[in-house]
């Protein structure tokens, strides 16, 4: 016994060391370490209490059996059973706490994983924004350079246009002078033409007078003919000169009009280029301001991108650490589950051995009810009311339009009609019983107790509690109730509400085949 005690202490110390290691990966958070230490202390105390009660009481029962008789042994066995029940409750609470912590850790790892992915995405987007901002800043700088160059070119063009305006004005003045001189020449040609006409008239009169003079006027006639011929040529030349001068006059007039129009257009163009110079100056100023702002933005984004990259790396490292901690927590959870299973086995063994155990009464109710269900189903097969294929069917048809989900099977209507009398009788036999139901290996319950078979209201939250028939209770506890083939299975668990429940189930066989189980849920005795 002493060596066994030492072995137990070594095991307890090893478990304490394992649990103490749990605090090392809780990110050194004080409240988490405190919680973990409390769990460690509770686990050691409970394990020591359970082991001491089992060994010391068993030893005392064995030692005193011969002296005090069977009655005293039964009393001791009852005490062991009572202590084992308390230990089972404590183990269930411990398992629930560890499982809850494990769920929190899993959720934290999942959320941190999302945060890592989001952080990486933000970092990548920040890098894209930084690249884009740099490109836009470079484009802004090019815009500034182009604006400055354009402003200079337009200024040069404006100066050239102004010079063209001056030249066009001088040309217009020159053309106007030519037009005036052409007008003067026309006036002179008119005078010459008048003189030629008068000369021609005088030559004609001279010819007439010379003819009258006869022989004496013959020489004068020759002179008159020459004068008339000269006047004719002068008149012809004057006409030709007049035509040329008229043409020059018209062309210079047209040229003057064109030059005036050109001058006006050049002046308007000069005004336009002046406006362009002003606008390009404004654009250059705005481009310079924008380029400076974009440079500042790119610099800030670059700094943020670096910080985001560091944060993403830190989150990745924390995620890796939490994943490692999650694996360790899974191991602890598995060990707690194993401890819970051992407590269940011990308590079940004591229930089988002690006919006076409070749990034995629940077992007797469950076994008797299971026998009645077996007889009912066997009779239904023999009468043909159910076929074996229908009874053992695992084909669950979803009931449309109902939440939470409900299912129908080939045997649902039969169970709904026949099971209440057996199940309600089981509930009424002990005040601690909360429910007594028949379940298949998958956790399907065709008919629940009357208290949980209220009419559907359409309110999901109300129907979740008020109507539990045709539901699938496939949680860990529910699945085990209908799938095990042990003489009995006594589970102890803690609800989300904090309420501790015992769940005792026994198998149901029909025609030598395992069908499911009869399950009783009850408050601690």
From TrEMBL:
Pfam families with a match to the protein in the record: MCPsignal
Compartments, as annotated in UniProt: Membrane
Transmembrane intervals: 31-51
Subcellular location, principal: membrane
InterPro entries listed in its UniProt record: MCPsignal_dom (IPR004089)
Organism superkingdom: Bacteria
Keyword terms of this UniProt record: Membrane, Transducer, Transmembrane, Transmembrane helix
Record has Transmembrane helix as a keyword: yes
Cellular component terms (Gene Ontology): membrane
Domain Methyl-accepting transducer: 83-319
GO biological process, one term: signal transduction
Protein family: Belongs to the methyl-accepting chemotaxis (MCP) protein family.
Name assigned to this protein: Methyl-accepting chemotaxis protein
């Amino acid at each position: 016994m002493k060596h066994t005690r030492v072995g137990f202490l070594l095991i307890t110390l090893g478990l304490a060391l394992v649990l103490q290691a749990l605090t090392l990966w809780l990110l050194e958070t004080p409240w988490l370490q405190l919680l973990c230490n409390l769990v460690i202390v509770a686990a050691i105390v409970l394990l020591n209490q359970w082991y001491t009660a089992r060994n010391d009481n068993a030893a005392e029962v064995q030692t005193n059996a011969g002296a005090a008789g069977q009655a005293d042994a039964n009393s001791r066995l009852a005490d062991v059973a009572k202590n084992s029940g308390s230990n089972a409750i404590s183990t269930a609470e411990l398992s629930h706490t560890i499982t809850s912590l494990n769920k929190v850790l899993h959720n934290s790892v999942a959320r941190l994983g999302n945060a890592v992915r989001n952080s990486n995405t933000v970092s990548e987007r920040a890098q894209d924004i930084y690249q884009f901002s740099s490109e836009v800043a470079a484009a802004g700088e090019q815009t500034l350079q182009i604006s400055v160059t354009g402003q200079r070119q337009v200024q040069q063009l404006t100066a050239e246009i102004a010079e063209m305006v001056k030249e066009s004005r001088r040309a217009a003045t020159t053309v106007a002078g030519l037009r005036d001189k052409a007008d003067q020449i026309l006036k002179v040609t008119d005078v010459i033409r008048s003189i030629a006409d008068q000369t021609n008239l005088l030559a004609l009169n001279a010819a007439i007078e010379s003819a009258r003079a006869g022989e004496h006027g013959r020489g004068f006639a020759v002179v008159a003919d020459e004068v008339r011929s000269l006047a004719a040529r002068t008149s012809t030349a004057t006409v030709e000169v007049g035509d040329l001068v008229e043409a020059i006059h018209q062309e210079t007039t047209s040229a003057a009009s064109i030059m005036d129009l050109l001058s006006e257009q050049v002046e308007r163009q000069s005004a336009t280029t002046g406006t362009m110079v002003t606008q390009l100056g404004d654009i250059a100023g705005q481009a310079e301001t924008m380029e400076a702002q974009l440079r500042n933005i790119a610099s800030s984004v670059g700094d943020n991108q670096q910080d985001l990259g560091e944060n993403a790396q830190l989150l990745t490292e924390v995620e890796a650490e939490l994943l490692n901690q999650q694996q360790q927590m899974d191991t602890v959870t598995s060990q707690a589950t194993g401890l819970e299973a051992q407590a269940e086995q011990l308590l079940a063994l004591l229930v089988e051995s002690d006919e006076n155990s409070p749990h034995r009464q629940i077992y007797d109710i469950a076994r008797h009810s299971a026998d009645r269900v077996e007889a009912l189903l066997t009779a239904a097969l023999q009468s043909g009311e159910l076929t074996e294929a229908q009874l053992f069917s695992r084909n669950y048809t979803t009931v449309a339009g109902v939440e939470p989900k409900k299912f129908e099977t080939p045997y649902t209507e039969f169970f709904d009609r026949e099971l209440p009398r057996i199940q309600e009788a089981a509930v009424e036999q002990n005040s601690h019983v909360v429910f007594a139901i028949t379940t298949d290996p998958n956790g399907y319950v065709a008919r629940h107790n009357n208290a949980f078979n209220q009419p559907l209201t359409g309110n999901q939250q109300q129907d979740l509690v008020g109507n539990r028939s045709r539901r699938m209770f496939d949680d860990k506890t529910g699945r085990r109730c209908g799938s095990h083939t042990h003489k009995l299975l006594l589970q102890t668990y803690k609800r989300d509400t904090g309420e501790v429940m015992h769940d005792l189930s026994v198998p149901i066989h029909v025609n030598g085949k395992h069908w499911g189980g009869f399950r009783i849920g009850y408050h601690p005795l």
